[in-house]
Amino acid sequence: MSHLLDGKKLAVIGDPIEHSLSPIIQQAMLDELGISCTYERILVQAGSVAAWLPSAPELNLAGFNATMPHKTDLVPLMDTLSDDARMYRSVNTVVIREGRFHGHNTDGEGFLRALHDAGMEHRNRRVVVYGAGGAARSVVLKLTAAGAENVTVCCRTPKKAEELAARSPRIRLCGLAETACEEALQQAGLFINCTPLGMQGVQAQFDDFSFLDRLPASTPVCDLIYRPLKTRLLEEAEKRGHPAANGLGMLIHQAILALEQFASLSLDADLMKKAVMKRLLPVLNRGQLPPESRKVPG
What we know:
By secondary structure, the protein is of the alpha/beta class. It has helices at 22-33, 49-52, 83-88, 107-117, 134-145, 162-165, 179-186, 232-239, 248-263, 269-286, and strands at 9-14, 38-43, 61-66, 80-81, 93-97, 100-104, 126-130, 150-155, 171-175, 190-193, 221-223, 244-245. The protein has two domains: 9-107 and 254-293, Rossmann fold (3-Layer(aba) Sandwich), CATH 3.40.50; 120-242, NAD(P)-binding Rossmann-like Domain (Rossmann fold). The chain is built from ten helices and twelve strands. Helix 1 (22-33) crosses helix 9 (248-263), helix 4 (107-117) packs across helix 5 (134-145) and helix 4 (107-117) crosses helix 9. The longest helix is centred in the last third of the chain and has 18 residues, at 269-286. Mean pLDDT is 93; it is low at 290-298.
């Protein structure tokens, strides 16, 4: 049976783009589904996505994913926006239909699904998030909208995240060294690292892990990093008896949700995860990143 994606192309755009795992993930799923569609990387330089966008249909693209630095730039360029894309003011998935651009964001829902897979509950929990960058934004807003009691965002420069805190009275901001951060850790029902500390190719690491000692016993610890698959943070958390999960689940689930939009299909997430892991794990276990990806995310 033919599919609307047969003979079409999909892509991921970004700058840099060579490090993206999206082609491996999406192609594994397309092949598993028997859809004759290819997925590629396209370098779109920072600041030029508005000029590039009109050419996308001419490239035979049925849609594309977007990574840094284009997610926010795409928002005003879309013909329609999903509720999540509007909430985050960020687009990571664009579906092209009849020359119109439909913007979605699958990051937050992908994170919630990954939490569910890991058996980590967020509803009615007090959550502590380290970091206030782009990844933290979607996680914090989705958690708040999906039933977390409150979310305390601990970061080096809280002033830069004031707009995020203004989105909900259940979002609190504090500096990493402030007493409020320590108090939040002592009451946390879930801890999430959204900083690049400990990421492969990034020299920076946590100065120490004594903050984990402030968490109540058995509080789940989640790290959005998936390279390496087990960061030092997760190792230290497990030593202290905390359930631990990396960011691979979020990476895969947000991709599944994106393909559902591209393909107008409801997918079997377990089947898709198995297809993806078969191709992705050997790449992650090799552990090599191209030079372009060895930059600390902003």
